[in-house]
TrEMBL record:
Keywords per UniProt: Membrane, Transmembrane, Transmembrane helix
Name of the protein in question: Peptidase M50 domain-containing protein
Organism the protein comes from: Peptacetobacter hominis
Taxonomic lineage from the root: Bacteria, Bacillati, Bacillota, Clostridia, Peptostreptococcales
Spans through the membrane: 9-26, 32-53, 132-155
Top-level taxon of the source organism: Bacteria
Amino acid sequence: MGKNILKRIMLIMYFVSVVLIILMSVRKIISIPVFSLAFIVQAVIIVIIHEFFHGISAEKNGLMFTSMYIGPFVLLRENRKFTGLKKVKFNGSYLGRANIENREIKNDDDFKIHSNAWRKAIKAGPVSDIRISTVFIIIGICTGIYEISIAVLMIDIFVCIPSFIYGDGEHLFLIKNNKVFEISVIYTYSMIGNISNQTDEYLYRKLIDEIDKTVLNDDSILPLCIAAQSVIYKSIAEDKIIPESIKNTAKDIVNKGPKCFSQGMDIIYFRSLINTMILYYLCVEENKDYAERLYLYVKGMKCSVPGERLDKMRTEHILGKEDYKKEIESGKYRNQMFYGCVGFENMENIIDDKVIEYSYIKNKKTET
């Protein structure tokens, strides 16, 4: 209910903003070409500064700032210095992103340090938006080029505020108030790096214990969905049976259905969980009947973000619906925002091999 009201308020703000821009243009208060140029230049600057402050805050508080994505480019970082620039396939789900990885987490004290560092890193981006916006507004007023001030206000309304509400702000709220989400974030961003077995075991056990303690309801379903998917994904890569409690949690989430997820991007996590479960029940437990039932939930789904198309290809290939061997082996359908993340890329390679191997074995049995 709260999100629906918020969406309506945002739509009203968008409409009023557009009308005001048109009126100011008609009355020659602003020049549309100057306004457009100011909007584009300032948007790029704000995105770069926003992501940089996410990363630099993480680095100052003990995490690793390993790369920064700006549109189709990724700046590589090592030993607190940017060391190179690579061009990657543009990821339409974000304009920029700071790639942050954890260091070793072997006990509760390490975990607390990392949790505090993540809170500060998430908060740093929106704080930088406020500061740079204030600077641009002052510059516009002092120079008399009001297009600068108005353009940055439009960026705040159309980009920064929605990004905070549905991105950084929501993540900051969850990491402060939901233990499952907090552990999931730290666990996931440890998996993408190159971590020790001790860190892996500590975080895995901590996440399992927290999932077991959490009651499934409307408030916890999204964090539990993310947590369960992380555990199942890693279990596929390591070819190990997951605890019954995790299976039951995942099944309960699926049974509740997509209607329990908020409109917008949240539904992606539901589809991702199901695709991961399909791979698990085929590759690890060889339970094709249940995998086929799960497939009915995602059959004909739309792939709305990078990585989802690969999820669909893996699912349909392993079930024998389509032949996507070449596409899976090419690696070009992977989510580019994890480019260079050693741990994650290793798991992706293992899972791709398992999907292709399983399909090959199944086809050979069918031929026989």
